[in-house]
RNA sequence: GCCGUGGUGGCGGAAUUGGCAUACGCGUACGGUUCAGAACCGUAUCUCGCAAGAGUUGAGAGUUCAAAUCUCUCCCACGGCACCA
């Protein structure tokens, strides 16, 4: 037989698939469905990237396997075609994005077909196609109508180079994500989407989906939910009140000053009647001019100005406390104002130290703290020891400075998951060791700064010893969850324990502080305490203090989505502004049931039947310096009639961000050419949710969150049948260049898949990309290693020559069945590298057989088919099959046949391998022991001595302890 | 600083209910084939040691008959977030 000629074979089958379209699917209610999805690419001018190939091949394998298992599989492809590169290219060359995009798409499509992906090409979509973005605009209008889109003047991140407003998500370390230049702040009218209204559900519903933990964690962090309270502070000389948000209402008695963000509205026109307003105004101006990097680049050095002539009243202590403006407080979080509790917050502590403000502790860990090492630095792990009512103890750890972030309930601050589990256990069983409100003492900050260990110094140091009922022994870290303890005195402990490695837990039993330099405890208690809340646990205190002085409140880090781009190459926002209607709505002459119109007076939606609002052809793509879209220059497009009053009106010239089209594309795949609706209910019900969605980690906080938001909204208004779009999400690692760096044009280390295909073939490329390393980890490309994959396929090719009707030898049959199992399971777990490895092992074994049994070879080909579809198809045909290998059912395995009848048992003496015995799998311990003790290799090490103990793992191992 | 992931031969990596560490592939060496080379085939390939043997999974300790895997104390790399009260 001829040599393996990948060019001929791949061309032949690609042509056949093009004609026969085996992967175009129709909805078939009688067949179970599988919706397999990859993130559709942005069709850049650079062509397909090896990273695309890795991800698409992986899910292609999954899709092909699912088809072989009898599922009706939807594996679609499309183009996320709006985006900056095409527009920037247009600015440079004058070539319209429409043209460059079309060209790029053609290239991508050709490249993909050369790799043999089993996409359903008849469902191809393109976000920049008017028949597609018509529906993007439609969805936007629904958001508008439901009051989730609003125009707001707000400081936005402005990139002076790209001349574009950026979403927070697009600002990386204060720099523009695209060009890396420092981002400025500008006030700009922007369309916003109220994603924060969905914050809670976006967080909560993560429990219902199958995403990797790290994605859930990242999303949760991004949403940043925190529960707390809003508390009002009265101001001395005005009627004004200032609201603060805090997660620690239990520390209210320790609030010794207030801080407002520079942008806080109460500061705008000296409403507070500050006597040093000039100074304050100057500070605010300075803060505004600072970019985000500058604010953080100054390190942790806090700045601020006291507002003279006004004071706030702490509602709990009734004390008058100073107010500051400082830029360490952010406007857009909480209420833009905080109550500062320096004793229990690092930042407040730092500020208070610098400005010499009182620091007042109000929370005390109950059972004290334990230091693993007596000389431990402040930032090391500290441990709280809690004693339960039944006498058992728990050791809880956190990594914080105990006197600054006093642990709430022992662990809340910075606890690990393990500790959380312990806490839950605790809460169930009930223990008496939560932090309590104590009568606090006031110390002056200068004193505090000099004596940081002062709180520790107040405790006595008896020793806690873990004691087994029978024999006392020092605490073993392994069993530190729950155990019986007794309490010993320090002297007793010294005698019972050896101090090796200081592995002795010192319990710092809580005592009332003895005395203080200058202030006795008794005196301190007189000065201030937590009043009627003394003695409560911190969590109880939170509840009660919130009830008494404020209201419960939940805050999120997530901010509303800046949805406007002053650009050309995007979906036009389908709204017009009508001066006339604006006036009538504000005056109340015009009533609208449309929440968007009410909320944004004068903004009128383009009627749905007039959609799409098509992107007009322009001559200049350059955005203006004032930040307006190039669309603003086309007066015949801008000037329209108002859909409501038919008066003169102007179109919105901003376009949508890239994220718009990709927020719902997976819905369109279910019904891609429907002119009536974005997708029919029927088709959505058949295909949704997406069963398996793979993509990059870089999209976890942007695309993934945005599309979940849109989906939930569409669910709420009754257009999609599921609350979550994706049942399962996985992510791929990045393919790096062989130098371990990111592939980039400027570094000249980009690998072009076309070249690899030319030299080695698409099948080799696919196999290599799967074999190169764990799918979810980054791997560097290697041109040297790819030959291994090529050789593997060549050997499969050659083996076909020796295929005969031949029986399966017994040990080989076991391997065959084990291989089916391994490959099947590995695909499901995305362990493609070991799946390929198993195929290699199987091939190696087959090569040692005198003849290649037909049956075994056919199974090999079927297992190989998802990975290397072309060669598999060709060999399948050579075996005389008329129908495609991709239509053949997935091989099944027999668990019985996997277990070998005989096995090699490892014999250890004292845990070291000394010999091997070949025996039947079901041999008993006694039989094997007898055999083993006759072996010279074993005798040498047992020395004929008595075997004290035997450990036996059936079918695997025998360990003799002498 | 916080959160997450990872650290195993010359290289990519395998092995996780604790049970033969280094599967599979690359590279390298030697041999075969060849006029020669490429390709291909075979053998070898963690370290020390002639060998018997001993050591080895980022470092150190612990638990165990047995640890890459579990526990503790550290170190390093990568990714994300970063004054979020």
What does this structure look like?
There is one protein chain. This protein is an alpha+beta fold and 962 residues long. Among the domains are: 225-355, Valyl/Leucyl/Isoleucyl-tRNA synthetase, editing domain (Isoleucyl-tRNA Synthetase, domain 2, Alpha-Beta Complex), CATH 3.90.740; 363-527, Alpha-Beta Complex (Nucleoside Triphosphate Pyrophosphohydrolase), CATH 3.90.79; 782-897, Orthogonal Bundle (Isoleucyl-tRNA Synthetase, Domain 1); 902-961, Ubiquitin-like (UB roll) (Roll). It contains 33 helices and 40 strands. Strands 10, 11, 12, 13, 14, 15 and 25 form a 7-stranded mixed sheet that branches. It has a 4-stranded parallel sheet with strand order 2-1-31-32, covered by helices on one side. The longest helix has 19 residues, at 50-68. Mean pLDDT is 79; it is low at 365-527. The structure holds one RNA strand of 85 nucleotides.
Q: Could you give the topology of this structure?
A:
Blueprint: H1 6-20, E1 33-38, H2 50-68, E2 72-74, E3 78-79, H3 84-93, H4 97-115, E4 125-126, H5 130-145, E5 149-159, E6 164-166, E7 171-172, E8 175-176, E9 184-193, H6 199-204, H7 213-223, E10 226-235, E11 241-246, E12 257-260, H8 277-289, H9 292-297, E13 305-313, E14 320-325, E15 337-340, H10 346-355, E16 359-360, E17 363-364, E18 369-371, E19 382-387, E20 393-398, H11 417-429, E21 436-437, E22 442-443, H12 445-450, H13 454-457, E23 464-466, E24 485-487, H14 490-496, H15 521-527, H16 538-549, E25 550-555, E26 561-562, E27 575-577, H17 579-587, H18 595-599, E28 603-605, H19 635-638, E29 639-641, E30 648-651, H20 659-662, H21 665-668, H22 681-687, E31 692-696, H23 703-716, E32 729-732, E33 735-736, H24 753-760, H25 762-771, E34 779-780, H26 786-799, E35 803-804, H27 810-828, H28 832-848, E36 852-853, H29 854-864, H30 869-878, H31 895-898, E37 902-909, E38 912-920, H32 925-932, H33 936-942, E39 949-953, E40 957-961
Parallel strand pairs: 1-2, 1-31, 3-4, 12-14, 31-32, 33-34, 35-36, 37-40
Antiparallel strand pairs: 5-6, 5-9, 7-8, 9-26, 10-11, 10-13, 10-25, 12-15, 13-14, 16-22, 17-21, 18-19, 19-20, 23-24, 27-28, 27-30, 29-30, 37-38, 39-40
Helix pairs in contact: 1-30, 3-4, 24-25, 25-26, 26-28, 27-28, 28-29, 29-30
The structure holds one RNA strand of 85 nucleotides.
């Amino acid at each position: 037989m001829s040599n393996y000629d990948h060019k001929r074979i791949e061309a032949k089958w690609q042509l056949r698939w093009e004609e026969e379209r085996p992967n175009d699917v129709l909805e078939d209610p009688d067949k179970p469905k599988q919706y397999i999805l990859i993130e559709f690419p942005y069709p850049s001018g650079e062509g397909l990237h090896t990273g695309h190939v890795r991800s698409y091949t992986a899910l292609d394998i999954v899709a092909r396997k699912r088809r072989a298992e009898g599922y009706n599989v939807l594996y679609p492809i499309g183009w996320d075609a709006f985006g900056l590169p095409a527009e920037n290219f247009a600015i440079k060359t004058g070539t319209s994005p429409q043209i460059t995009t079309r060209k790029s798409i053609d290239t991508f499509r050709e490249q993909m077909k050369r790799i043999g992906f089993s996409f359903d090409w008849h469902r191809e979509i393109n976000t920049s196609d008017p028949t597609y973005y018509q529906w993007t605009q439609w969805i936007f209008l629904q958001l508008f109508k439901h009051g989730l889109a609003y125009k707001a003047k707000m400081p936005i991140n402005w990139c002076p180079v790209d001349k574009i407003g950026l979403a927070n998500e697009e600002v990386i370390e204060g720099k523009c994500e695209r060009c890396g230049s420092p981002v400025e702040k500008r006030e700009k009218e922007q369309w916003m989407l109220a994603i924060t209204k969905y914050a809670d559900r976006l967080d909560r519903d993560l429990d219902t989906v199958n995403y990797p933990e790290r994605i859930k964690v990242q999303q949760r962090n991004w949403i940043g939910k925190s529960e707390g309270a809003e508390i009002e502070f009265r101001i001395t000389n005005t009627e004004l009140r200032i609201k603060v948000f805090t997660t620690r209402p239990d520390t209210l008695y320790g609030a010794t000053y207030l801080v407002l963000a520079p942008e806080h509205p109460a500061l705008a026109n000296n409403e507070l009647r500050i006597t040093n307003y000039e100074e304050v105004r100057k500070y605010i101006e300075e803060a505004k001019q600072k970019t985000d990097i500058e604010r953080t680049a100054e390190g942790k050095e806090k700045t601020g100005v006291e507002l003279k002539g006004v004071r706030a009243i702490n509602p709990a202590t009734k004390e008058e406390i100073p107010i500051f403006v400082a830029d360490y407080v952010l406007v857009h979080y909480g209420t833009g104002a905080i109550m500062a509790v320096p004793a229990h917050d690092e930042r407040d502590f730092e500020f208070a130290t610098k400005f010499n403000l009182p620091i007042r502790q109000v929370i005390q860990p109950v059972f004290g703290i334990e230091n693993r090492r007596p000389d431990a630095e402040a930032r090391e792990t500290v441990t709280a020891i809690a004693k339960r009512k039944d006498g058992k103890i728990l050791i809880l750890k956190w990594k914080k400075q105990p006197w600054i972030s006093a642990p709430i309930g022992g662990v809340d601050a910075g606890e690990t998951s393990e500790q959380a589990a312990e806490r839950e256990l605790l809460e169930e069983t009930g223990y008496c060791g939560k932090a309590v409100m104590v009568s606090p003492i006031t110390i002056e900050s200068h004193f505090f700064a000099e004596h940081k260990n002062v709180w520790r110094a107040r405790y006595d140091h008896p020793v806690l010893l873990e004691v087994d009922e029978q024999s006392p022994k020092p605490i073993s870290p392994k069993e530190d969850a729950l155990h019986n303890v007794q309490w010993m005195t320090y002297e007793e402990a010294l005698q019972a324990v050896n101090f090796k490695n200081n592995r002795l837990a010192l319990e710092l039993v809580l005592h009332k502080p003895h005395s203080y330099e200058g202030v006795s405890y008794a005196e301190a208690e007189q000065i201030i305490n937590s009043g009627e809340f003394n003695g409560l646990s911190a969590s109880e205190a939170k509840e009660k203090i919130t009830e008494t002085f404020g209201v419960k409140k939940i805050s999120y880090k997530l901010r509303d989505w800046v949805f406007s781009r002053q650009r050309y190459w995007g979906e036009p926002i389908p709204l017009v502004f009508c001066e006339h209607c604006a006036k009538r709505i504000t005056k109340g002459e015009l009533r609208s049931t449309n929440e968007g119109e009410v909320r944004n007076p004068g903004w009128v939606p383009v009627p749905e039947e007039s959609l799409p609002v098509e992107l007009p052809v322009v001559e200049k793509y350059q955005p203006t310096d004032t930040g307006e879209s190039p669309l603003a220059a086309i007066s015949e497009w801008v000037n329209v009639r108002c859909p409501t009053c038919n008066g003169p009106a102007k179109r919105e010239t901003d376009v949508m961000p890239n994220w718009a089209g990709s927020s719902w594309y997976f819905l369109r795949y279910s019904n891609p050419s429907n002119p009536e609706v974005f997708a029919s209910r029927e088709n959505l019900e058949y295909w949704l949710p997406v069963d398996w969605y793979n993509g990059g980690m870089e999209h976890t906080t942007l695309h993934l969150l945005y599309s979940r938001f849109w989906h939930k909204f569409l669910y709420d208004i009754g257009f999609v049948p599921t609350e979550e779009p994706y049942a399962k999400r996985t992510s791929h690692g990045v393919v790096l260049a062989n130098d371990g760096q990111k592939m980039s044009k400027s570094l000249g280390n980009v690998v072009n898949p076309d070249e690899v295909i030319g030299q080695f073939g698409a099948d080799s490329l696919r196999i290599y990309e799967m074999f190169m390393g764990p799918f979810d980890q980054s791997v560097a490309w290697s041109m040297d290693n790819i030959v291994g994959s090529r050789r593997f396929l060549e050997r499969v090719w050659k083996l076909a020559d020796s295929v005969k009707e031949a029986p399966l030898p017994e040990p080989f049959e076991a391997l065959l069945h084990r291989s089916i199992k391994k490959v099947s399971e590995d695909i499901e777990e995305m362990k493609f590298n070991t799946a390929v490895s198993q195929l290699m092992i199987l091939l190696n074994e087959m090569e040692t057989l005198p003849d290649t049994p037909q049956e075994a070879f056919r199974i090999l080909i079927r297992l190989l088919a998802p990975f290397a579809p072309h060669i598999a198809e060709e060999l399948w045909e050579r075996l005389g099959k008329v129908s495609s290998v991709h239509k053949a059912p997935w091989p099944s395995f027999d668990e019985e046949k996997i277990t070998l009848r005989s096995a090699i048992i490892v014999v250890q003496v004292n845990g070291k391998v000394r010999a091997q015995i070949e025996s039947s799998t079901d041999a008993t311990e006694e039989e094997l022991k007898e055999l083993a003790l006759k072996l010279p290799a074993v005798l040498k090490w047992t020395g004929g001595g008595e075997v004290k103990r035997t450990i036996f793992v059936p079918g695997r191992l025998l360990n003799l302890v002498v």
